[in-house]
Design goal:
By secondary structure, the chain is of the alpha/beta class. Helix content is 29%, strand content 32%. Residues 46-136 form the Methyltransferase domain.
Length: 250
């Protein structure tokens, strides 16, 4: 499946560029509460793919959830293990080919869906279906085309010292967002992620093909580009990404 060469270097370098911001915080606890509310029923076991630094899993574990995570970058997995909880098992590997024979009450892919082409997304959605229990719930963040079209060319600084820069882009021919990071002093050494964006009807069609039904669409936040501040909740037409809540359709 997807063999995008940018993936591992980008997330490794993003981790280093944000190292001072990686600790568990109230924001991670709030993200865990939000997940619990959005699932909307009792659950105990969770699979999180593309789990990054492990803070969301740690937050869920604090609410007595048993969480298994899958992350591609070894350094991120080691970071997660150093700051982990007995309820969390952190695995290093690709969610495209890792062998996970068990099923879970909830499967999460937060902030990262869209690597590769449509067949890659379809394959991953089919895997998510396989990992869900019969009445399980999946939550997946989807990048929203209208936001990224407007964000094309916008640039910002990441850290308070303005040492790390970030620029958004949009490839109109393919509906892909680009997100480029670099250190201010070495702009020639940049790292870019490229992710497909989907309108709601497009992702619903892919989910249908994968044997999943979208039971709810939850708009996320957006950047106020004039004030350069993040707005936690925006409309579906304005949000940076939206979250789909999915269940097995058959």
């Amino acid at each position: 499946m997807a063999k995008e060469n940018w993936v591992k270097p980008f997330y490794e370098n993003q981790f280093h560029m944000m190292k001072d911001l990686q600790g568990f915080s109230e924001r991670d606890e709030q993200a865990a509460k939000e997940i619990i509310n959005q699932i909307g029923k009792d659950f105990s076991t969770v699979l999180e793919i593309g789990s990054g630094n492990g803070n969301l899993a740690l937050g869920l574990a604090e609410f007595n959830k048993v969480v298994k995570t899958v992350e591609l970058v070894p350094e991120l997995v080691e970071f997660a293990k150093q700051n982990s909880h007995p309820n969390v098992t952190s695995l290093c590997g690709s969610f495209y080919n890792i062998d996970l024979p068990q099923t879970f009450d909830a499967v999460l892919y937060i902030d990262g869906f869209g690597i590769g082409e449509d067949p890659d997304q379809l394959y991953l959605l089919k895997r998510i279906r396989e990992w869900l229990t019969e009445d399980g719930i999946g939550l997946i963040d989807i990048y929203n085309p209208p936001y990224w079209q407007k964000a094309d060319g916008k640039q910002m600084y990441i850290d308070p010292e303005a040492n790390v820069c970030r620029r958004y882009g949009y490839i109109h021919e393919t509906n892909q967002m680009t997100d480029t990071w670099w250190y201010k002093d070495t702009p020639e050494e940049s790292f870019t992620q490229v992710l497909f964006c989907y309108h709601v009807d497009e992702i619903k069609s892919l989910c249908d093909l994968a044997g999943l039904k979208v039971v709810e669409v939850i708009p996320g936040g957006a950047m106020d580009r004039d004030e350069m501040r993040f707005i936690p909740k925006a409309s579906l037409s304005e949000c940076l990404s939206y979250r789909i809540k999915v269940a097995r359709s058959s």
